[in-house]
Specification:
The chain has 390 residues and is of the alpha/beta class. It folds into two domains: 177 residues, Rossmann fold, CATH 3.40.50; 152 residues, Glycogen Phosphorylase B (Rossmann fold). It is built from 15 helices and 15 strands.
């Protein structure tokens, strides 16, 4: 692979968003990449063999060719892993126990074999990349799923930093460990969080001093852009694929209440856009305004809305940063937000009538928005990087 030396490797999540300038941005990396004084190269996987283009990111390398080489080894049955009889027996016992306790069938023997075999096949290629680039540090988005790459970085004593990309709760197996002493060998060396709330939200598998509050550049930039927008009598629903059916029915019920006095906007999740008319026909027949394309900027809608309704999306916390009066509908997934509910900053509701009643309460719940998203994010990240790279 034709690469040269760079100070920092950036490894994206492959999920880009179309922005006002017509380019597809990685909202977690692109703002940072253009501000860094170090030389950078970006690694990105394809998304089901699709690429979001055009992009602003410079020095980008797609890893599709590397995946192709790994698959070739699979085709020629190279670098296989052999599990011992004891390991197979142990995995089968766990499989049976999972079936007994949870009624869920999972072929752990196959999954572990597949995972370890791919690891054996991909490690040499990652090693070649690290050898050629000679990075002083690596920044990743979404570390789980990148354990093989992180392993090579650790072998070569290259510090790995993860930038937070979403909600972290005690139910998130990628970050939350019940015991304080728990360890994960191929976890990043540092985790840069949005704010203090996230640093304290779970037990991470690295020391607390390696978890640093830095902020979220995309949110901060958007807040500055829309800070003069006037609020409207507007209720914004944030949908998700897992709860879209129930939440959209709740929105329709709310829209049918007489003299509501609020415009209702329903923001679909990107994975709902292609099929929402078939999946949620009640929305088609309603008077709710549907946001069903990626070109509409969510932060602009935050800035002009008064009320936010959702369940457990990252957007809930972003909406709070815009001082939206926020309600969480009590359906599957709300457990993820129990810490937030306990703060009293948001209100749990079960029926549309409860929301209407709460809207008449003019008393605002006051809180420090920096609890969730620290200000001056770009400078914070640059300062912390300097400390690591010294």
């Amino acid at each position: 692979m034709l690469v040269k030396e760079h100070d920092i490797i950036l490894f994206s999540s492959s999920r880009r968003k179309i922005q006002d300038d017509g380019f597809w941005w990685d909202i977690y990396i692109d703002h940072l990449e253009k501000e860094l004084e170090y030389s950078t190269i970006l690694f990105e996987n394809d998304l089901f063999l699709k690429y979001s283009k055009p992009v602003r990111t410079e020095n980008m390398v797609y890893l599709t060719f590397l995946d192709f080489l790994v698959d070739l080894k699979k085709y020629f049955k190279r670098s296989k892993v052999n599990l011992s009889k004891e390991e197979i027996s142990y995995l089968k016992k766990i499989t049976i126990e999972m079936k007994t306790r949870f009624g869920y069938s999972l072929d752990l023997v196959y999954l572990v074999y597949h995972k370890l075999t791919r690891r054996k096949r991909v490690l040499p290629y990652y090693q070649k990349l690290i050898t050629k680039i000679k990075p002083r540090a690596v920044i990743v988005i979404c570390s789980y799923g990148k354990e093989d790459f992180i392993e090579v970085c650790k072998t070569n004593k290259v510090p790995v930093i993860e930038l937070q990309h979403g909600v972290i709760t005690k139910y998130h197996v990628g970050y939350s460990y019940e015991k304080d002493s728990a360890k994960k060998n191929n976890f990043p060396d540092f985790l840069f969080t949005f704010g203090k709330y996230w640093r304290e939200s779970v037990n991470y598998p690295i020391p607390k001093e390696k978890i640093v509050n830095v902020g979220f550049p995309e949110l901060e930039i958007r807040k500055q852009r829309y800070h003069n927008m006037k609020k409207k009598k507007q209720i914004l629903f944030i949908s998700q694929k897992t709860i879209g059916s129930k939440l959209s029915k709740f929105a329709v019920e709310l829209s049918q209440i007489k003299n509501l006095g609020y415009r209702i906007i329903y923001k679909l999740h990107p994975f709902e856009v292609s099929s929402w008319k078939e999946d949620f026909p009640w929305l088609v027949q309603s008077n709710i305004d549907i946001v069903d394309h990626q070109g509409v900027n969510l932060y602009q809608i935050f800035a002009e809305s008064e009320v936010l309704v959702g369940v457990y999306s990252t957007a809930i916390f972003e909406g709070l940063s815009f001082n939206l009066k926020t309600f969480l509908v009590d359906i599957t997934g709300i457990d993820y937000m129990e810490n937030l509910i306990q703060t009293g900053i948001v209100t749990r509701i079960s029926k549309p009538e409860e929301l209407v009643s709460a809207l008449s309460d003019e008393r605002a719940k006051r809180f420090d928005t920096e609890l969730f998203f620290k200000n001056n994010s770009i400078n914070n990240i640059k300062e912390e990087l300097d400390k690591i790279l010294i």
